[in-house]
């Protein structure tokens, strides 16, 4: 959707290279410029390398979408510290590292748009999701504080907290749990990824010029 409005798009992946290149094919199909970059967003050196590759190809970063994340549903009796730690590395350290990798150039240019993908789990109680829900609550707080800090530099920071969305993570979840979530959703279905993308596109656009935090 961003490519349709003239944005040059850099697509990051960690494991699913095929999906990243499929997305790039869609970008190229509409005549837009794009690139694929592999990086683990929980590792500072990889994030810095990724951003440098993007700068070398497209110039300064104007728009950033932090949508890398992992989700595991587990009762507290089955959750180890290693699970907690890895969840925070990707879901919280990731948005911090990518934001910090681009914020200085955004400040110098007095322009930047950042959207973090949180989750409804960061707002309301979700059973068996102590670690995941806590990371998403952290993302929401991170968003608000960055929005306040960066606003004087014309950098807007927002987040989207989706409910149940038709993603690889949702498809891998327990079918009974998914059906229960669908039953509790007013629309009676999962959201399509395109519906979430529309919200992200709006928040990155000038139509949302007075929305931050």
The SSE order reads: EHEHEHEHEHHH
CATH architecture: 3-Layer(aba) Sandwich
Cα shape: globular
Helix content: 40-55%
Low-confidence stretches: none
Number of strands: 5
Sheet/helix structural class: alpha/beta
Please give the order of strands in the largest beta sheet: 3-4-5
Query: What's the assembly state of these chains?
Result: single chain
CATH topology: Rossmann fold
How many domains in all? 1
Quickly count the helices.
7
Radius of gyration: 17 Å
Classified by CATH, the class is Alpha Beta
- Beta-strand residue fraction: 5-15%
Structural write-up:
By secondary structure, this protein is of the alpha/beta class. The chain has one domain (56-208): NAD(P)-binding Rossmann-like Domain (Rossmann fold), CATH 3.40.50.720. It is built from seven helices and five strands. Helix 2 (44-58) runs parallel beside helix 3 (81-109) and helix 3 runs parallel beside helix 4. It is globular and about 45 Å long.
